[in-house]
Write a structure and sequence with these properties.
This protein has 494 residues and is α/β, with parallel strands linked by helices. The chain has 5 domains: 32 residues, no CATH class; 50 residues, no CATH class; 171 residues, Ribonuclease H-like superfamily/Ribonuclease H (Nucleotidyltransferase, domain 5, 2-Layer Sandwich), CATH 3.30.420.10; 70 residues, no CATH class; 88 residues, no CATH class. Helices cover 43% and strands 14% of the residues. The protein has 19 helices and 15 strands. The protein has a 5-stranded mixed β-sheet, with helices on both faces. It has a 4-stranded antiparallel β-sheet with strand order 9-12-13-14, with no helix packed on it. The chain has a 3-stranded mixed β-sheet with strand order 3-2-8. Strand 4 and strand 5 form a beta hairpin. The longest helix has 21 residues. It is elongated and about 140 Å long.
Amino acid sequence: MDLRRTLPREAAAAKAGLSATTGARLDADPRLPSQKQTTRGRRRPDPLAAIWDSEIVPMLKAVPGLRPISIVAEMQRRHRDLPAGTRRTLERRVRTWQALHGPERDVIFRQDHPPGKQGLSDFTDTTPLGVTIAGVPLAHRLYHFRLAFSGWQHAEVVLGGESFVALAEGLQNALWALGGAPQEHRSDSLSAAFRNLDRDAAEDQTRRYEALCSHYRMTPTRNNTGVVHENGAIESSHGHLKTALEQALLLRGSAEFADLPLYRRFVAGVIGRANANRRHELEIERPLLTSLPPRRTTDFEEDLVTVTRSSGFLLRRVFYTVPSRLIGHRLRVRIYDDRIDCFLGGEPVLTLPRGRAPQGRAMRGRTVHVVDYRHVIHALRRKPQALLNLIYRDQLFPRTAFRNTWDALITAEPPRAACRTMVGLLALAHERGCEAELAAELDAILGAGALPDLKALETQFAPVRSTSPHVTVALPSAGTYDALLGDDAVEVSA
């Protein structure tokens, strides 16, 4: 058409590589073929024509959130002759109607995050990863911290629920690993942490959270309850983190770990590799972070307990055993997410793994026992029959092999003999320091269909007696030294 402006039709068509007939057609109608297409009309009757304006549109106006599948089911109930294949037609029609006449929808406003401005904290459930510790499934969450600008992140395993203790410990670990603090710390509404607290306790937790942020000179902010996208800078990264952990477990070939510290190191390794890809952004953000205070602040809860005659104390529906020499003393305990530290006055005395009372109405009133057989075995040796009906007997056994041995003994022997043998085995494991070796031997004995012989095992695990060689030392006479000094020796006096 550009050539046609200055050349005749035949010449313009020849230069454009077209025939003269095509040139004549283009002269008559210069529109492109795509511009000549006409809208295809309906080729079959509209199945919704009779009910769309009279029934469906009023339903959409009255209940904007009504789903098309619900409308289809209702229309098929009202009109038995409605064709079964109208669902896709109705979905397209509803989608178009909502775009033209539906209510206004919420809008997400993308934010610009200046470096050093904001850090975010949240918890995410990672139980579906299927991690097991020594064969036992690990129900756990991850505390997740992330800088909004650089994407630097920190995560650690949380064994309990979302609590202020887990938040305070995880946040401080993240800040000290980072080497600085952002100007603002954003979290959700902490509703999960406050769910089971009364009003006064919830207000106390709020004050402690504000004091925690003030210690690091951070401004505490929260997103509105139920509005996930307001915390999107970390909510969206939850999925990436869990995907990275899942892929790392697949590459590892197993989700089984020998102990919890090994799994914690695994998580830290995945986070470290992710942070290595953000080091350039972190170099920009790190100089703009607020310097850390001289020391950490409180990341635990405290309580006072009294050790009873049972050589233990009750704390939050969990009974913990302690050495019997502490009976009658009051201990100050610091409660962390995974442990409790016990102090007698200002002196630390021991650290115990933290137990948690079961949740739910069916489990209400039940007590969990955290037992170390080493704390009570000396008293149990004097009263072996107490083992028979001991309320925490099953928790007393340190390994599965000991529990299986008790089941075999109580089945095959009289209760008195079974108690004496079992207590003797526990005492042997404690006194000789051979718990793991004795457990392996018990598994072998039970696997052979026999019962353990306490005397034989005491002989087998008896300490090896070593004899010192006899050394004869011959002392030289004083004259030997005179001969070494010679006749010209001069006595030197000091």
